[in-house]
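Problem: given the chain below (455 residues), write out its structure.
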Amino acid sequence: MFKTGLLLFSAFAVAEGAKCEEKTTPLKCKLPAVVDKSLDCKNGACAEADFGDTSTQCCVAAAKCSSKTDVECTGTAVKVTAASCAGSACVTDDFTGANAKCCKAPAPAKCSSKTDQACKGTAVKDTAASCAGDPCVTDDFTGANGKCCKAPAPAKCTTKTDVACTGTAVKDTAASCAGAACVADDFTGANAKCCVTPAKCTTKTDVACKGTAVKDTAASCAGAACLASDFTGANAKCCKAAVVMAKCASKADGVCTDGAVKDTDASCAGAACLAGDFGDANAKCCKAGPAAKTKCATTATLVCTKPAVVDTTQDCAGAKCAKIDFGGVDKVCCKEAPAAKTKCAETSTLKCTGAAVVDTTKDCAAAKCEAGDFGTIAAVCCKVPDLNMCAMFVLGKCTGGAVKDATAKCAAATCKASDFGDATTKCCTTAPKGSGAASVLPSAVLTAAGFLALY
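Solution.
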């Protein structure tokens, strides 16, 4: 009886058919397909094959939310036009609240969109932030913790120009104060927000002061580290004007003592020379004087060893001449003796030729006179006769048996006819016995060039 009733129930179920919605769990369509609740499963009972993509019995393509234009999302929710409804046709439930298929919570508005609201207290508006919703409301601007507000950035230490750091500390121009406005406490001591211990100028060795300024090794830089700007000229933190030392020569009445002499190339200790810059050889403006020396020629008791002779132009090695200064040619006071020469006039066997005459002031070329020393006027011992020699007036005429004296000189610088005549005149002398008077042409005066032309 029970089995018969069960068969009758099963036959009734098949005849009625099973709705796709009855087997949605655990059987579901594959997204983006959705179950069409109005359809029946195949064969009167739902099976896995009825669910899948849009080609299966129970699954269809979901309708686009944009296809339903007569319904809006409820509350503050906004429509998502690109989304899909829950089924093949959109219904009102797809638009009910921010969690519905076609709706979402609105994007929060930018804080900058609300221009009539300021943050409370010391907080400042964060223009890059967003409000809690759309539109922005007053609560978004309530203090530093509001959606659109933040604590103010601390002020730069440089904004407070009427306060300096205390003690030896210096202002840190790159630092910030503790709050939005700088206060005196930000500048109290080296550990304050705006202060640091300055670095010593000597810590920066790769920079020199510009111009004529010099580094002040006792000074400190402007900040915790020295910069190039601390060394720009005499007014920079680490520089000072160089003291130009006066030249010792500028003090004419400065006197050195104890044999020292003034050092004119040296400088005094300061910008002006003082008496203290002068004194013995250790003073700023003084130096040891040169040791006095004696000429080698001043002593008669010390002599050079022959053939060396005393060099009268030299000084002895020390203040006084000593025996060691004399000896051979290698000694300071001795030199090689010059070779002895013979005067051209000392030989009677060698004569000049032509119109040339012997130059009695000259020496022969070597120790002894040779034939090569005599000849024409080009020879070492020969010369053109002087213009006032009687021989130069070749046309002068002696009279009364007198003859021309070739070695005599006229009365003046230039010979005249009056220098010639009888034996009492300048250029004439008594003829030796047995000789005839010299025959002369009419008188005339020759120049040296004219004389040479005759020969």
